[in-house]
Amino acid sequence: MAVLISGTTKKTMNVMAKPVGPACNIDCDYCYYLSKEGLLDYDKKCKPKMEGDLLEKFIKSYIEQQNSNEIVFHWQGGEPTLLGVAYFREVIRLQKKYTPKGVRVENNLQTNGTLLNDEWARFLAKHHFLVGISIDGPELYHNAYRTNKAGRGTFNQTMKGLEALKRHNVSFATLTCVNNLTGSNPVEIYRFLRDVVGSTQMQFIPIVEPKSFAKTAPQHWRSEEVLFDGMPELDPRHPDSVVESWCVSAEQWGQFLCGVFDEWFSNDIGLINVPYFEACVETWMGRVNPLCTLAPMCGKGLAIEANGDVFACDHYVYPEYKLGNIQTSDLDEMQFSPVQEQFGRAKEASLPSQCRKCDYQFACFGECPKNRFIQTLEGEPGLNYLCRGWNRFFKHIDPYIALIVRSMGYEVHKQINSQAMRIQL
Ligand code: SF4
Ligand code: SF4
């Protein structure tokens, strides 16, 4: 984001790097990224890999084209650990080469954990990586969809990787996909992550994909896919559902968030960080939600593929949303381009009137536009598939969040303070 502060424009970027493209050693049923292999025309015979001059160019531009004193690299996939420790040693070497004095560089790595061992863990600890580890809950839930290429569950390998991280005191957060199974078992999932995994930072992601997701970009859905809120075909269990069977339903999503919230509120405030809840506390204070999905604006997190192609967002890696390639365009030009700005502003500008009138617009902003594929009962398109779930959750937590805000000595402001909004937009 470019913000004018005391006469200088502060330029910060957040780019999700996919150095191995969509390649992965496992084969999760609900993965939204594996299908990019066909979409992005990678040569099936050669595995995509960002290396050599291209890797150096990315690292150099990402550091030089920001003027912040803290730069965070986000490594994701596919499965980035397929590249091996030596690849990331080279990443660290290049980062050191280009980082000016006084600037701190950090690295976040998102992984399925199955390839992690002591060598990896020593390296990650030494270079202070924050590791996001994907784990869906106890074995039964994890193995339901997170399977290897032979169709066998990966729970034991993920737990082994996790143990390696713990042995070497690597900082980690958990990322849990909320799907049609986990969605109905919030407390069991939460307690497992807290008591067995030992997670103190828990990210939950709703799994939502229309059946056409592999080929059809968001906002390019066919009109017959855009159903009215409440229609039975929006339920993933319906035989003619428009969403994949493994998706969480809107009702389950609300139930899941409320269940986790109650457990967290009763026992773990200040001990466990659940970004959704922490973000709500900020939002109830009148601040802009720090999570892009619930903020007024998109567009601050580009995605870069292994071949240097840059896209508007990790969830918009489709030809329609390609901004360019770093071999021919500068990263900052793409990040701050009019097209990307329009993409960002469209999040608020395209809200249907149901969201504009909603008591919780300040906290939700219609959630992620990739999930806005239903229409309101009045027939207006652009409503979020998860709306009923979000609404239930916000209503449920409202008095408790207000209590937390007041106990911290702040007033409750259920609308974003206008200055914070100006900076955001
Ligand atoms: S499209 Fe979704 S994930 Fe991407 S920036 Fe917008 S809200 Fe965030
Ligand atoms: S809860 Fe529903 S109506 Fe309210 S802002 Fe979110 S998506 Fe829109």
TrEMBL record:
The keyword Transport does not apply. One of its GO terms (molecular function) is 4 iron, 4 sulfur cluster binding. The keyword Metal-binding applies. InterPro entries: 4Fe4S-binding_SPASM_dom (IPR023885), Aldolase_TIM (IPR013785), Anaerob_Ser_sulfatase-maturase (IPR034491), rSAM (IPR007197), rSAM_sf (IPR058240), SPASM_anSME (IPR047207), Sulphatase_maturase_rSAM (IPR023867). Its cofactor is [4Fe-4S] cluster. PROSITE patterns: RADICAL_SAM (PS51918). Residues 7-244 form the Radical SAM core domain. Pfam families: Radical_SAM, SPASM. Keywords: 4Fe-4S, Iron, Iron-sulfur, Metal-binding, S-adenosyl-L-methionine. Belongs to the radical SAM superfamily. Anaerobic sulfatase-maturating enzyme family. This is Putative arylsulfatase regulatory protein. It comes from Vibrio maritimus.
